[in-house]
């Protein structure tokens, strides 16, 4: 993103120095900010950083008192460190304040992964473990622009999420009986991939597709969708993420059913 008119742009010759690592270096981008550029090709899913969180508020609908309680449990040194990272809305970007990543759930580690294949010399796109789409698009008028197509896709994704959310989770077996339910999940998966959102949200959509296939007895497609879900989950969050086991166990169950199905079809013992 371009720097605001009242804020100086990053100066390439004064870029921060990245810690010693084999993946990236920091460069200033003329007219913009700073970027991380790949020192070598980095496959999607490569873990670049892992760290423990300083402060956790383990609920979605939190109040001021919840934040104060979590902050109160910190040591004096941790509180001091927190205020070196804390930033508020409306700060002058010229001060280059650090930002704190929000989270949609409790986790014991902060993980930063590469979201797309970054070739040597290309700017890296990083994804954090929480469910979000990190693409930032500037609105450009014209139906042929990427930003216009992206806005249309994101609107479609929001509509599909609204139409399917009440039939996912514990009510998925009920959703599986709806004629257009799985088609909506497929459309959501296609739109997310076109948007470049190879994140936990896409993994969840593929897992639900796999589970719907399992309910409806289409085990072959269930295996394919389940393997895709596990691959995306592994790439964006890692096998040590708390609910990765749930994905792996579901897919193994579908695979076992598929093996029994194929064994029965060919007169074999499963």
Q: Can you describe what's shown?
A:
The strands form two sheets. A three-stranded antiparallel β-sheet has the order 3-4-5, covered by helices on one side. It has a two-stranded antiparallel ribbon with strand order 1-2. It has two domains: 12-128, Beta-clip-like, CATH 2.170.270; 146-265, Serine Threonine Protein Phosphatase 5, Tetratricopeptide repeat. The protein contains eight helices and five strands; from the N terminus they run E-E-E-H-H-E-E-H-H-H-H-H-H. The protein has 270 residues and is mostly helical. InterPro entries: SET_dom_sf (IPR046341), SET_domain_protein (IPR053185).
What topology emerges from the helices and strands here?
Layout: E1 24-28, E2 34-38, E3 47-51, H1 64-72, H2 76-85, E4 110-114, E5 126-128, H3 146-164, H4 172-176, H5 181-194, H6 200-215, H7 219-237, H8 244-265
Antiparallel strand pairs: 1-2, 3-4, 4-5
Distance between the termini: 56 Å
How would you sum up the major sheet?
A: 3 strands, antiparallel
Order of helices and strands: EEEHHEEHHHHHH
Average of pLDDT: 76
Strand content: 5-15%
Tally of helical segments: 8
Helix content: 40-55%
- Structural class label: mainly alpha
CATH class of the largest domain: Mainly Alpha
CATH architecture of the largest domain: Alpha Horseshoe
The shape is globular
Extract low-pLDDT stretches.
1-8, 96-110, 127-141
Spatial arrangement of strands, main beta sheet: 3-4-5
| Oligomer category | single chain
Quickly count the domains. 2
Count every beta strand, where a strand is a DSSP E run of 2 or more residues: 5
Structural Rg: 22 Å
CATH superfamily of the largest domain: Tetratricopeptide repeat domain
The CATH topology assignment of the largest domain is Serine Threonine Protein Phosphatase 5, Tetratricopeptide repeat
InterPro entries: SET_dom_sf, SET_domain_protein
């Amino acid at each position: 993103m371009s720097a605001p008119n009242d804020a100086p742009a990053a100066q390439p010759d004064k870029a921060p120095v990245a810690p010693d690592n084999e993946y990236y270096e920091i460069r200033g981008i003329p007219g913009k900010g700073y970027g991380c550029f790949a020192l070598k090709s980095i496959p999607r899913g490569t873990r670049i950083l892992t760290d423990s969180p300083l402060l956790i508020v383990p609920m979605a609908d939190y109040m001021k008192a919840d934040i104060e309680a979590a902050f109160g449990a910190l040591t004096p040194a941790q509180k001091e460190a927190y205020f070196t990272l804390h930033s508020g809305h409306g700060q002058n970007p010229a001060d280059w304040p650090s930002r704190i990543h929000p989270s949609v759930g409790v986790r014991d580690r902060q993980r930063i992964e590469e979201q797309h294949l970054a070739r040597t010399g290309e700017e890296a796109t990083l994804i954090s473990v929480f469910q979000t789409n990190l693409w930032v698009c500037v609105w450009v008028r014209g139906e042929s622009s990427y930003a216009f197509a992206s806005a249309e896709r994101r609107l479609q994704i929001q509509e599909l999420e609204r139409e399917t959310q009440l039939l996912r989770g514990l009510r998925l077996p009920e959703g599986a009986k709806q004629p257009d339910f799985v088609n909506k999940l497929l459309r959501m998966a296609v739109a997310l991939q076109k948007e470049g959102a190879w994140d936990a949200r896409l993994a969840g959509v593929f897992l639900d597709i796999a589970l719907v296939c399992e309910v409806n007895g289409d085990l072959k497609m269930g295996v394919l969708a389940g393997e895709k879900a596990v691959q995306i989950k592994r790439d964006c969050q890692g096998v040590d993420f708390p609910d990765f086991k749930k994905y792996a166990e579901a897919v193994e169950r579908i695979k076992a059913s598929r093996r029994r199905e194929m064994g029965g079809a060919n007169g074999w013992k499963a």
